[in-house]
Amino acid sequence: MNTLTELLSFWQAQAGKLGQQTLQHIGLTAAALVLGVAVGVPLGLLLTRRPRLAPWVLGGAGILQTIPSIALLGFLIPALGIGPGPAILALFLYSLLPIVRNTLAGVQSVDAAVVDAARGLGLTDGQVLRRVELPLALPVLLAGIRTAAVINVGVATLAAYIAAGGLGEFIFGGIALNNPAMILAGAIPAAVLALVFDGLLAGLQRLSGQQRGHAGRALLLALPLLAGLYLLPRATSKLLAGFSPEFVGRSDGLPGLRQRYGLDPASVVLAPALVYEAARAGDVDLIDGYSTDGRIRAYDLRVLRDDRHAFPPYQAVPVVRRQTLAAHPELGPALAHLAGQLSDSVMTELNYRVDYRHETPRAVARSFLRRRRLWCAPQAVTGATIRLGSKIFGEQYILAELYAALIRGYTHLGVETKTGLGGTTICAEALRTGAIDLYPEYTGTGLLVVLQPPAATLDSLGPDPAAVLGYVRREYRRRYQLEWLAPLGFNNTYALLMRRRHAQRLGIGTVSELSAYLAGE
Amino acid sequence: MPTPAPPAIEVCNLTKHYGSHAVVQDVSFALAPGETLVLLGPSGCGKTTLLRMLNRLVEPDAGSVSVNGADVRQQRPEELRRGMGYVIQQVGLLPHYTVAENVAVVPRLLGHAPDRIAARTGELLRRLHLPPEQFAGQYPRQLSGGQQQRVGLARALAADPPIVLLDEPFGALDPLTRASIRREFRELPELRRKTLVLVTHDVTEAFELADRILLLEAGRVQQLGTPRQLLLHPANSFVRRFFAAEQLGLQLRTLRLTDMLAELPPAAEIPDATTFKSEDNTVALTATVQEVLEQLSRLTAAGPAAAGDATVWLEATPPAAREPLTYASLMAAFGRAIQRLSAP
């Protein structure tokens, strides 16, 4: 009930965005279907004339179909970058198999005697195709297009990961924020769209022969028009921003910036893994990121200074179950070895080695510990097993590996790592329920995402790191029996990033300057 | 001096292989306009392939086909086919076309005027006992097998082609429907004038419809001739064996009274014709032995006379009158006539 209310108010608040995303979604699906029909039907017809090619073509299309959609998008990024191009291409590839296969099956299902009689009466090959085979194959062919349409509506949600828009923006934002209402806000219209496409094409299939011919032609006209929806003008500004779904939805992300700086650039949503690449390639000019991300160095990006403190401090701190600390008193001191060891620049360097140089987090963690003379060979395991969690990005993997090495080296406890736990709420939930014993968290995240204190409290804390740490430590203890240990040293806050040269040319060094630039004529 | 009309269809040394398998080997024949040729033979003998080479649905490996004196390869296949009706066993009506639209396919391809097409379609459907007011707007799936085959026939005749090819046109029908459609077919004035090539494996059908029969086995011509030639003077043991099972029935249906005038006993005295003769007990000289037998048995069933006493009179039997026929005298004459006719 609560979710329903939230959902309705979300739709109300985001009506404009919902409409735009729905149109984009229809546009993406229709554009891919147009291509699918334009290529798939002739290809299917070719196969009816050259049946020997059929296993190869159908096999190839079948293999395309088995590639997970997110992976297919991933394959296309190096070749086509991000945006609608690769999204439409991926959807098109998925629509090929059902359309080609059903065209072939439809034509093959036409009674051989009918075709023989038609040829015997003096119809040319083209006339046999147009007047006999295609009309009779149409129901099966339409079933293929229908399948492709429903697949496309579903897969098109993933387009949001590569800045191609669509209803996936809400869905992935909702997943990142663990906000069921937001997920439903995108998922329900997507499901309705799939049902509408399915229903329309099913209605087309039920029509009688002649009506179906007219309706088929109408469809061929309507699809490009629908695809044109995608080309409707969108908001533009001097800079195009590419933000990850979580950043768009989080109160300390884009909403915070909007509030503090009045900053509202034209933006697209894309997968967190792609934002840096998109900025480097120039697909977007402004991105959200983390101030210690290794790619800042690798891609020559500039961190815009948060001069009005929209982003609260995000000191990295291991958060541990108090129960676990009490049961294993040796654990605390082992973890404490890392306290204060990692400055911003050290962490950026470690991240750089993992994110950009593709060294494994384990190797990076080990060489760091060796250099700091903290490395101890693993000891025999005699005690219980500590379950280490981490979120799904490089820095968290490195921290998890560092802690794993320390626990193995300085205690007799076993270590089990559960890395790649989706987002903050998932990690926090896992820690509270005891699915994991500890994971590295950031003070700002704990404050805003987990604790969500009233605005008055937030104001009183201000941008002071110590005050924030004190507050989350106190509240975590009180509410969840969880302990924030000593900070690691670095402050991985959200950051707005631009290509360094671009920022230099525009004379932008701080978020205020960015805001002024965007507002200026 | 008028040049003689070229054969409607002339086939020379036609040969077709599928892989190493020879389907049709060195087949030649010529058909006069208006003649009906039946391609007869067991399943797989190559008769359908031979037929399909006539309208280029199959291209021969060697040999030639000429239609009205012109080699078929000089014409585009579609144009050739539009000038030849084509009927197949499975009918192959276009399921998304109405009956009228199916019949109109070829005239439309030929660009005939719509009102002319409509008139022709209505006329054909009426003649084939498919009243257009009831059937023209129906779809093939709403028709029985016999009705569908009639539509198929109408479709082949719609553009009034001088030649019609038929591939087992009655093969898929039940015996009753088949007999009635075959009768209609035979009596259709449209077809009398046309050159027909008909494929069948049904011997009775072949004898009923053929002017000449081309008997095929393993792609080779075993005999080409009139039904009577094949029956009475088989060219080889295959031909003899092929007709052996139905020999008597075929003979009864093939031999006519005119063929056995020599064996029929002359009348001892001229009877008073007017007293005895009526529609019921008179037969024409062109009647087959089978037909006379049927008439005798009808009389037996109807009248009080014992089987042996039924008699029929011969209509106008110049130069000399003949005794009225009984079962016994008819069969005796038939036996002697067969012996005489099949003598080498």
UniProtKB/TrEMBL annotation, chain A:
Q: Which residues form the ABC transmembrane type-1 domain?
A: 22-201
**KW Lipid metabolism (keyword) present:** no
Q: Does the keyword Transmembrane helix apply?
A: yes
Its placement in the membrane is given as:
Multi-pass membrane protein
Location in the cell reads: Cell membrane
Q: Which PANTHER family match?
A: GLYCINE BETAINE/L-PROLINE TRANSPORT SYSTEM PERMEASE PROTEIN PROW, OSMOPROTECTANT IMPORT PERMEASE PROTEIN OSMW
| Family to which the UniProt record says this protein belongs | Belongs to the binding-protein-dependent transport system permease family. In the N-terminal section; belongs to the binding-protein-dependent transport system permease family.
**Annotated protein name in UniProt:** ABC transporter permease subunit
Annotated organism of origin: Hymenobacter rubripertinctus
Q: What is the lineage of its organism?
A: Bacteria, Pseudomonadati, Bacteroidota, Cytophagia, Cytophagales
UniProtKB/TrEMBL annotation, chain B:
Q: Does the keyword Ion transport apply?
A: no
InterPro entries per the UniProt record, alphabetical:
AAA+_ATPase, ABC_transporter-like_ATP-bd, ABC_transporter-like_CS, P-loop_NTPase
Q: Name one Pfam family in it.
A: ABC_tran
List, alphabetically, the Gene3D superfamilies matched: P-loop containing nucleotide triphosphate hydrolases
| SUPFAM superfamilies cross-referenced by the UniProt entry | P-loop containing nucleoside triphosphate hydrolases (SSF52540)
Report domain ABC transporter positions.
9-243
Q: Which UniProt keywords apply?
A: ATP-binding, Nucleotide-binding, Transport
Q: Name one GO biological process term.
A: quaternary ammonium group transport
- Highest taxon of the lineage: Bacteria
Q: Which GO terms describe its molecular function?
A: ATP binding; ATP hydrolysis activity
Give the matching PANTHER family. OSMOPROTECTANT IMPORT ATP-BINDING PROTEIN OSMV
Record family assignment: Belongs to the ABC transporter superfamily.
Task: Give the protein's recorded name.
Answer: ABC transporter ATP-binding protein
> What taxonomic lineage is listed for the species of origin?
Bacteria, Pseudomonadati, Bacteroidota, Cytophagia, Cytophagales
